């Protein structure tokens, strides 16, 4: 039997060895970082060291880094914690972590390539003070928003800009100085699940989501998940945007071969993450494709993985105007350790699946 081919890095990157070692070392520390005795102080030293390393990796100061239990929490903390007295504007293709934290937000349209409509942002900013929430990179298509331009518009209008950098971090350079707040997630960097961070512009205060023992300078109550955070710091340092060329070459080979057989690449014309492609096979539901590939040992997603395991029509592709085809896309996202033959193996499995499904009368 063929070994498994894991191509679902945007759901979770495989654990990096550096992260595993850091988690194991921290697991053996008994102290609570808030305890005053020697064991607590030792845990505190490790915690503050990891805070410094994460902040340094993404160009912020440790005092402005709030450690959380993941990217969803970091986004919710920013969106809810900064929204007081502001209108909230969200991109149409944002992750549910942002959309669910901002019910009633005004939605900013995207172009058909998935990039933000800057004209629409400029028009929406003409009004009372706003909090604008934009993702650096989309989790389904990998499309990168024009963040420098959006940030300049926000600055001019006196708006705050929150950037969900969960998918971009470690894969492309992230301009944290453009944002008032930046959300990060450990397991998307190759760290363990259950760690995240919110990097704030110096001096920016926000109201906490979780209150309690006053940890994180009162911005996030609760004992810090030290092993997961230590793993995240190690993963953040190991993740190198420079490694992108290798993954981009594999991604390009997949796209060329599948497009030649009738697939449509969503967002093909836009700047994108090097590891991600969204392949639409018109007429074939995404769920059918995911299951067929899974049986062949190839792990991919249908758009975003949803907690119920159900596959629906992608709101991201719908916002890009894909219509019925928005239910027929699979997301292939190459992990940091993708094997050299990943493109060949994926294309072989995808082509066999396509031929088989095309022979079925209902799907022909
Ligand atoms: N933001 C984006 C763009 C994501 O892709 C995800 C996860 O898929 C999240 C936020 C949530 O991150 P976490 O899984 O760490 O809660």
TrEMBL record:
Pfam families, alphabetized: Aminotran_5
SUPFAM superfamilies xrefs: PLP-dependent transferases
InterPro entries per UniProt: Aminotrans_V_dom, Cysteine_dSase, PyrdxlP-dep_Trfase, PyrdxlP-dep_Trfase_major, PyrdxlP-dep_Trfase_small
Catalytic activity, reaction form: (sulfur carrier)-H + L-cysteine = (sulfur carrier)-SH + L-alanine
Entries under Gene3D superfamilies matching the protein: 1.10.260.50, Aspartate Aminotransferase, domain 1 (3.90.1150.10), Type I PLP-dependent aspartate aminotransferase-like (Major domain) (3.40.640.10)
Domain Aminotransferase class V: 6-345
Assigned keywords, A-Z: Iron, Iron-sulfur, Metal-binding, Pyridoxal phosphate, Transferase
GO molecular function, one term: iron-sulfur cluster binding
Top-level lineage group: Bacteria
UniProt cofactor(s): pyridoxal 5'-phosphate
Family from the record: Belongs to the class-V pyridoxal-phosphate-dependent aminotransferase family. NifS/IscS subfamily.
Record's function text: Catalyzes the removal of elemental sulfur atoms from cysteine to produce alanine. Seems to participate in the biosynthesis of the nitrogenase metalloclusters by providing the inorganic sulfur required for the Fe-S core formation.
Protein name (Swiss-Prot/TrEMBL): Cysteine desulfurase
Organism listed in the record: Falsiroseomonas bella
């Amino acid at each position: 039997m063929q070994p498994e081919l894991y191509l679902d890095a945007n759901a979770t990157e495989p654990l990096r060895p550096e992260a595993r070692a850091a988690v194991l070392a921290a697991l053996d520390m008994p102290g609570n970082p808030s305890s005053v005795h020697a064991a607590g102080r030792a845990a505190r030293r490790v915690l503050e060291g990891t805070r410094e390393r994460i902040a340094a990796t993404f160009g912020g100061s440790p005092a402005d880094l709030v450690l959380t239990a993941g990217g969803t929490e970091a986004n919710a903390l920013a969106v809810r914690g900064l929204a007081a007295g502001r209108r909230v504007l969200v991109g149409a293709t944002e992750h549910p972590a942002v959309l669910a934290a901002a019910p009633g937000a005004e939605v900013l349209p995207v172009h058909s390539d998935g990039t933000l409509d800057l004209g629409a942002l400029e028009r929406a900013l003409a009004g009372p003070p706003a909090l604008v929430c934009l993702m650096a990179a989309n989790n389904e298509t990998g499309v990168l928003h024009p963040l420098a331009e959006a940030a300049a518009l926000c600055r001019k209008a006196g708006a705050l800009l929150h950037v969900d950098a969960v998918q971009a971090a470690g894969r492309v350079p992230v301009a944290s100085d453009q944002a008032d707040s930046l959300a990060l997630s450990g397991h998307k960097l190759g760290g363990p699940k259950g760690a995240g961070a919110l990097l704030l512009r110096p001096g920016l205060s926000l109201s906490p989501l979780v209150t309690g023992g006053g940890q994180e300078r009162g911005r996030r109550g609760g004992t810090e998940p030290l092993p997961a955070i230590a793993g995240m710091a190690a993963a953040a340092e190991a993740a190198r945007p420079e490694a992108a060329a290798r993954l981009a070459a594999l991604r390009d080979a997949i796209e060329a071969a599948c497009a030649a057989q009738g697939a449509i690449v969503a967002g093909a014309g836009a700047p994108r993450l090097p590891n991600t492609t969204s392949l639409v096979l018109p007429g074939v539901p995404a769920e059918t494709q995911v299951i067929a590939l899974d049986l062949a040992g190839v792990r991919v997603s249908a758009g975003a993985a949803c907690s119920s395991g159900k596959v629906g029509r992608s709101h991201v592709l719908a916002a890009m105007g894909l219509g019925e085809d928005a239910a027929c896309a699979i997301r292939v996202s190459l992990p940091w350790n993708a094997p050299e033959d990943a493109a060949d193996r994926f294309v072989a499995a995808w082509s066999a699946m396509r031929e088989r499904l095309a022979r079925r009368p209902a799907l022909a």
